[in-house]
Design brief:
Blueprint: E1 24-35, H1 38-45, H2 54-67, H3 69-72, E2 81-92, E3 95-107, H4 112-130, E4 138-148, E5 155-156
Antiparallel strand pairs: 1-3, 1-4, 2-3, 4-5
Helix pairs in contact: 2-4
Length: about 160
């Protein structure tokens, strides 16, 4: 097992020093799902959720959250993100919305946490927007799909 990078020699939490690392292009793609009843999915598709356009609000929330990841996760570095895209796909069986976030940066550290944060907050926003219609929605399977760039190389999980 490799040494934990966020723990010093005394077992204390620390932010990793990335000053020596070169700036390289880095990309991360994360995905997650929010499952719901068919009736709720139909309301979202038809634009009939009383709070408004669910997916537009969720997209903006995911983008905003991605940019604020270092404010939410204590040992993440603030990054000059160059691109964030949050996409949605409807799934009829089981009724759900698949959320995919792609984040890019040219920097010294990767954007996996930024992509995962975008998906997480987009899913939470969908829940918030549609909870008046259904309180049994479940957020599931948030995970890293791909990462490219950096010293550890490429990772493809699906």
């Amino acid at each position: 097992m490799s040494k934990l990078t966020h723990i010093d020699e005394h077992g204390n939490a620390k932010m990793v020093d990335v000053a020596h690392k070169p700036d390289t292009e880095r990309i991360a793609i994360a995905r997650g799902e929010i499952h719901m009843q068919k009736e709720t999915l139909d309301l979202i598709k038809a634009g009939q959720i009383k709070k408004g356009d669910v997916l537009t609000v969720a997209k903006i929330a995911g983008i905003t959250a991605s940019k604020r990841t270092s404010d939410l996760i204590p040992l993440c570095h603030p990054l000059p993100i160059s691109s964030i895209d949050v996409d949605f796909a409807y799934n009829d069986s089981p009724p759900s919305i698949i959320i995919t976030a792609t984040v890019k940066v040219t920097g010294k550290t990767g954007v996996e946490m930024e992509a995962l944060t975008a998906v997480s907050v987009a899913a939470l926003t969908i829940y918030d927007m549609a909870k008046a219609a259904e309180k049994t929605m479940t957020i599931q399977n948030i995970r890293l799909i791909e990462k490219h760039g950096g010293q550890s190389g490429d990772v493809v999980n699906e």
